[in-house]
Amino acid sequence: MPKRVLQGVVVSDKGEKTIVVKVERRFTHPVMKKTVRRSKNYHAHDEGNAAHVGQTVFIEECRPFSKTKTWKLVEGEAAQAEAPAAA
Q1: In angstroms, how far is the first alpha carbon of the chain from the final one?
Q2: What does pTM read for this prediction?
Q3: CB count, 10 Å around CB of 3?
Q4: Cα 71 to Cα 59: distance, rounded to the nearest angstrom
Q5: In angstroms, what CA-CA distances link 65 with 6, 29, 46, 71?
Q6: 80 by DSSP, 3-state: which?
Q7: Three-class SS of residue 82?
Q8: CA distances from 15 to 11, 18, 32, 46, 70 (A)
Q9: How distant is the alpha carbon of residue 59 from its chain centre?
């Protein structure tokens, strides 16, 4: 079974090797037929402390690192997000 990959924005990088990523999903309300936005925060493992607040990153489902961390930062995505900011 393939691992899920989500895209979101880093809202916190205060923890050691941990980032908090806000993932937003949009769907049509079944009764109102209006587009609704729902967001959820995920704790993700960031081995090299590469991601910073405001960056758009991809996180991947993985084994549990702790009670709340069951996602990890996809390698290479944080580096690509930093490159345009430096230029």
Answers
A1: 38
A2: 0.82
A3: 10
A4: 6
A5: 18, 35, 11, 8
A6: helix
A7: helix
A8: 12, 5, 40, 10, 15
A9: 5
